[in-house]
Amino acid sequence: MNLDVHGARIIFQKGSFVLTETVVNTWIIMAVIVGLCLFLTHGMQVHCRTKRQIIAEWIVKSVNNMVGENMGERFLRVGYAPLICSIMGLSALCSLSSMVGMYAPTSDLSTLLGWSLMVFVLITYNKFRVGGPLGYIKGYFDPIPILFPFNVISEVATPLSMAFRHFGNIASGSVITGLIYAALAAASHALFSLLPGAVGSVMGQIPLLQVGIPAIFSIYFDLFSSCLQAFIFCMLTMMYIGAAAEG
């Protein structure tokens, strides 16, 4: 079995316009999220009577508590909770899409760089809001002017580190899963080929060891790691924006 590691396939291209799996799958996942929101919030009442409303209220309450605890009540009032919830849901579902045979958009670095750039804009906006243009520029020379180059590097490294951390974990998980499948196929061929006669020839071509065993590793690399990386990305987003607002 050959291990095939590839990026997002190009679905359509005309001139400079390129449509890849990343874009298509991201829009599919966004449509799923919109549909899920409509389903959970359909027919909501003042007094909760349905399981759908219980789940919806639990999600809203959990995200509000997380934003309030990590960023402060002011960010909760200005509407950062929907942003954090959207990033977490989109990140988790994009990563988990690989479990149904889709190309995970979070395995494409351009996706994470786009999200990180958005976070960087919000960080910069809050720094401008607190200290103004002069305060923002002055921050590059704190605590002493000689640290200016290092402060610039630190500022640029913030979105890059967020993007590469998330991308590296998801992409490496996909590669490791592929290696496990390839190793199990090779082991299956070597093991069952030892059987005598035609039985060994036939059984050696069937990767029986790939049945069930990869699911154990998938619990971590696909399920746990996907949710964990979504949570970490959102926590870093809240921490960086909250710190920028404090000046």
Any overview of this molecule?
The chain has helices at residues 21-41, 51-71, 73-77, 80-96, 109-139, 148-192, 197-203, 213-246; strands at 10-14, 17-20. It is mainly α. A two-stranded antiparallel ribbon has the order 1-2. It starts with 9 loop residues before the first strand and ends with a helix. The relative contact order is 0.13. The model has no long low-confidence stretch (mean pLDDT 83).
Share of helix, binned: over 70%
Strand content: under 5%
Rounded to the nearest angstrom, the distance between the terminal CA atoms is: 55 Å
* Rg, Cα atoms, Å: 23 Å
Basic shape: globular
Keywords, please?
247 residues, mainly alpha, two-stranded antiparallel ribbon, 8 helices, 2 strands, 73% helix
Q: What secondary-structure arrangement, pairings included, does this model have?
A:
Layout lengths: L9 E5 L2 E4 H21 L9 H21 L1 H5 L2 H17 L12 H31 L8 H45 L4 H7 L9 H34 L1
Antiparallel strand pairs: 1-2
Helix pairs in contact: 1-2, 1-4, 2-4, 4-8, 5-6, 5-8, 6-8
